[in-house]
From TrEMBL:
Residues 300-377 form the ACT domain. It comes from Thalassotalea psychrophila. Its EC number is 4.2.1.51, 5.4.99.5. It comes from the Bacteria. CDD domains: ACT_CM-PDT (cd04905), PBP2_Ct-PDT_like (cd13631). The keyword Transmembrane helix does not apply. It catalyses: prephenate + H(+) = 3-phenylpyruvate + CO2 + H2O; chorismate = prephenate. The gene is pheA. This is Bifunctional chorismate mutase/prephenate dehydratase. SUPFAM superfamilies: ACT-like, Chorismate mutase II, Periplasmic binding protein-like II. Residues 106-286 form the Prephenate dehydratase domain. The lineage of its organism: Bacteria, Pseudomonadati, Pseudomonadota, Gammaproteobacteria, Alteromonadales. Pathway: Amino-acid biosynthesis; L-phenylalanine biosynthesis; phenylpyruvate from prephenate: step 1/1; Metabolic intermediate biosynthesis; prephenate biosynthesis; prephenate from chorismate: step 1/1.
Amino acid sequence: MKDSLDLNVIRKEITQLDQDLLSLFAKRRSLTLNVAKSKAHQVRPVRDQQREQELLVKLIQIGKEQGLDAHYVTNIFQTIIEDSVLNQQAYLQQLKNPNIKTPTVSVAFLGDKGSYSYLASYRYFSRRAEEIIEFGCASFDDILHQVESGNVDYGMLPIENTSSGSINEVYDLLQHTNLSIVGELSQPIDHCLLTAVNTNLEQIDTIYAHAQPVQQCSNFLNKQDGIRIEYCDSSAQAMQKAAESKLANVAVIGSEEGGKLYDLMALTKSIANQAENHSRFILVARKPVEVAEQIPAKTTLILATSQEPGALVDCLVVLKKYDINMTKLESRPIQGRPWEEMFYIDLEANLRSSAMQDCLAELTKLTRFIKVLGCYATEQIKPTNVPAKALEE
């Protein structure tokens, strides 16, 4: 009885400490927001990675003195720093674009609740809106139509995956829309095999899934015998079908987080071909946004070159001339013009910068067609490097 009472006391103390930690995290977040406010009228980058590195090294040393593992301390504070950076960026963007600040937004995404696009939408707007009006769509084309027609404010579109590569259908649709890219998000993708009832892998003979997860989990699926894949329009639809079936021989590929919305349980976790599996999403809207100078920005454009040797190389030389880094180059066929290609390019640059404006002026002279699809804040926050010596025990 005494041991049971002691355990209850210990658990109570842990719960209280967890609550205290949450209060401290909230206080720290509030202070970092004040940092953003102090930078609002100064052209100073949100990040000071030299200071971040010095802070991490100091915290690692303090942690060691208290018996804490260096990697444990590093992981915790890198997450805290990332949260701080993203919150500061969101605040500065709201100041830069006051006309679009609103507590409620409507978002179109592929599928229904629980889909990866649904989860990406909630993650992106968790820092920007108090309420999300959901609008699930059956296709990427429908998402663009809902935004273009004014039925919703934004559309969330997956554009590429680290395992399966570019989502060509989205690139092709971007050729023919007047919408602007106004944001991006990199979402970790942890594919699981989910079931509605307690079962085992040997009993599974039918798997519901969207085509993209099937491609990204091909190694796992190829090892399974006698399994039939039932393709669905979205991961959400696949999870809904599995949930309704309540059969021991039926499973679905989806996220554990999304599966919980349908009372599904993870039978097998982490079944993707690559352990580090991420999808990049873009957010589109009817009007472009301006990106605060303090924030790292990306500019996405499409262009078509002349059909002459070295025409694309000439364009890339211009980027080098203005010291603009290219993070993505994708070619897609131009509809109605056989053997001609349209090039999609992501650049690490703010559209308003003098370098980017001069670069665009030169590219315009070299190309048959050029169009800026959008300039937006980048949310791919790279962790601050910690010297190896600091991590040594």
